[in-house]
């Protein structure tokens, strides 16, 4: 069964390796590197139809280096992910999903945290031009746009943050709520035409700041926004480094009970997590999850979770 996964951190790993840190102090081959949960071989084995690749900058990076680091990750996307692998097809417009052929894997650029462009909207417009189709205003920290889920102040969007959401709307770019503070979440839901939670779970099942309360889930669903369940065990079972398919299914079942059967997807967070669901340690194992879900949900529902819900809810073509 085809898979669309709305979040991974492979670009960060490629960048770290390129800079000679970790992974044997040598560059990683996107096609086959065992250190990549989402290498091409694993994506193909897992029947991935599209993988979203996040640009992520560590918040403690000096301000004058953040934009360059973002550009480096974008360059790696073009040279290592796309340039060396004809199977990987760059998705730059939502209708591009419809052009994927058998054996193709769509590759979507996203941004995790506005730290990369600071308050320079010219840089944001450049990100749109290179094909960024989803933007999360924060990681867990605060920045010039908003407070993240880990910021004790718990503030919402700044005027700049609201302007970014408005620009996303004009470009048919998703605004991602997964790392936002609670107040920031509500600000985005009010303003965004295309909200999404790219990698979050249900806080009613696992009380973690990265998960969403029921009223947040219902508000996101009311705007047609998907919640893409994340495979990180601490977000699945509270205070745990281990989890099972059954634990993840509790989240999916709860989200369905809130009206989300057509608004649930997958956002693995592969290459950004250190702990894994048993038998779902990398993208090649995706069909293990599908087979387990088919024991509890109809085939149509599972197809929805795997890829069809995203295709149905992606921004409609305006251009």
UniProtKB/TrEMBL annotation:
It holds the Pfam family Peptidase_M19. Transmembrane segments: none annotated. GO terms for molecular function: metallodipeptidase activity. GO terms for biological process: proteolysis. It comes from Salipaludibacillus neizhouensis. This is Diguanylate cyclase.
């Amino acid at each position: 069964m085809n898979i669309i996964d709305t979040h991974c951190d492979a670009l960060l790993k490629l960048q770290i390796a390129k800079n000679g840190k970790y992974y044997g102090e040598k560059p990683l081959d996107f096609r086959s590197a065992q250190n990549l949960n989402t290498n091409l071989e694993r994506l193909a084995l897992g029947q991935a139809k599209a993988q979203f690749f996040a640009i992520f900058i560590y918040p403690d990076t000096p301000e004058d280096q953040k934009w360059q680091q973002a550009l480096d990750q974008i360059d790696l996307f073009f040279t290592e992910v796309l340039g060396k692998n004809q199977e990987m097809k760059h998705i730059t417009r939502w209708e591009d999903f419809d052009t994927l052929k058998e054996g193709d894997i769509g590759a979507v650029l996203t941004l995790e945290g506005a730290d990369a462009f600071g308050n320079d909207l010219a840089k944001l417009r450049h990100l749109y031009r290179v094909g960024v189709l989803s933007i999360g205003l924060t990681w867990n920290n605060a920045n010039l746009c908003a407070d993240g889920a880990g910021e004790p102040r718990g503030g919402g969007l700044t005027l700049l943050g609201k302007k970014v959401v408005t620009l996303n709307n004009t470009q048919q770019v998703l605004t991602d709520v997964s790392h936002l503070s609670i107040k920031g979440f509500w600000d985005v839901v009010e303003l965004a035409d295309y909200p999404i939670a790219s990698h979050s779970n249900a806080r009613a099942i696992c009380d973690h700041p990265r998960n969403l309360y029921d009223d947040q889930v219902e508000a996101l669903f009311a705007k047609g926004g998907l919640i893409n369940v994340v495979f990180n065990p601490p977000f699945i079972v509270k205070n745990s480094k281990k989890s099972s398919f059954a634990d993840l299914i509790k989240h999916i079942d709860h989200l369905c009970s809130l009206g989300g059967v057509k608004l649930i997807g997958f956002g693995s967070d592969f290459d950004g997590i250190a702990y894994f669901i048993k038998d779902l340690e990398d993208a090649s194992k995706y069909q293990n999850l599908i087979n387990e879900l088919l024991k509890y949900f109809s085939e149509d529902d599972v197809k929805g979770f795997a890829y069809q819900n995203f295709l149905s809810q992606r921004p409609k073509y305006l251009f």
